[in-house]
Amino acid sequence: MAASLSEWIEQRESQGNIAESQKTILDKAKSTGEISTSDYEKAWSDYRQCMIDKGYKEIKLIKYPSGLYVEAGNKQGTTIQESRYSDDSTECGDEYVADVQDVYGIIVGNPNLYADQAQAVVDCLHRDSLVPKDYTVSRFNKEFSGTDGNTSFDMQNLQVRSCLVSNGYNVGYATDDTEQLW
Description:
182 residues; mainly alpha; two-stranded parallel sheet; 8 helices; 4 strands; 5% strand
């Protein structure tokens, strides 16, 4: 993806407008190579408050062992409610957390900056000793794209899910906590 985290952040900044609240956090990350827990949690707190200010009853966050947050899924609303929620979460996300989330995900899930998401996931699974050392990207791709849902590792394990989510894979289960927005 880039030779360093700093270079990758600079590439992101050159591609579009990053909200000032996030730019401050990313500028620090360029020099330190990390996003502090307090900055990361503040970004999510600001996102949550933005959504509450727009009238949503609750915004629940799932915290993975890596420290990565994702918003819980929500109980289905009407088509109009879902459309409004999509617009509002995009607006609040763009303002407070989207770019910080992407960089934080790279820091915890893909520190080697692999361009191939599957390679990054397998590397993360190896680092966390969640799969055997001989587990390959090819095997991951075959298992993950399989229609029977069978993998050689526990897909519901929060560490496994952290590796997946931090590398752009969206995973969720019926047993996951949900938010009641309306």
